[in-house]
Design a protein that fits this description.
Blueprint lengths: L1 H4 L7 H5 L6 E2 L20 E6 L5 E4 H5 L4 E8 L4 E12 H8 L7 E6 L4 E5 H4 L5 E6 L2 E2 L9 E3 L12 E7 L6 H4 L18
Parallel strand pairs: 1-5, 2-11
Antiparallel strand pairs: 2-3, 4-5, 5-8, 6-7, 6-11, 8-9, 8-10
Amino acid sequence: MLERLLGGPKLSDEEKRRVPPGQYVTEKWPVLHYGSVPKVDVAKWDFRVWGEVESPIRFIWDEFKLMPRKKVHTDVHCVTRWSRLDMDFEGVPIQHILELAQLKPTAHFVLTHAEQGYTANLPLEVLDDEDVLLADIADGQPLTPEHGYPLRLVVPKRYFWKSAKWIRGLEFLPQDRLGFWERYGYNNNADPWKEERYSDE
């Protein structure tokens, strides 16, 4: 009933079970972000991994495109209450990056760095999951600028603000450091199944 009132699709019982509490399903992929859409020139783009790692790395776009790739079929959930089911992302599995960087035993958290100073934080055990990608393709097409071109993190098991757009680096840390939205009162854990939207919930 809620989906129809909000103009969303009619869902099967199986699909309804995949929608966290407080969410409605949309067929469109809404565009939400803070600030303007960066204009990125991949000829000048690079990506860094540093912090609590044995082998800090830097790679350019052409090197990223040669890395092992993986496809993930998943649902995504936004803190603003929309969910989009059956999305397909393609990119480099996060485990490949972790293997290259050789994390130290002191690495327990990661801070994602993106264009324009945006950051998002995660515990290592959330990042190091089989469905987490550095994704450059969504639903068979390169990411659009509005959705994070050329590269975004995809962390399906958390509200989607943790899946930072326009990502440029990963900093591994011994202690947690709040990201952009977390500093403004968003829940640090961000589990959609627990409705962890804001820090006072």
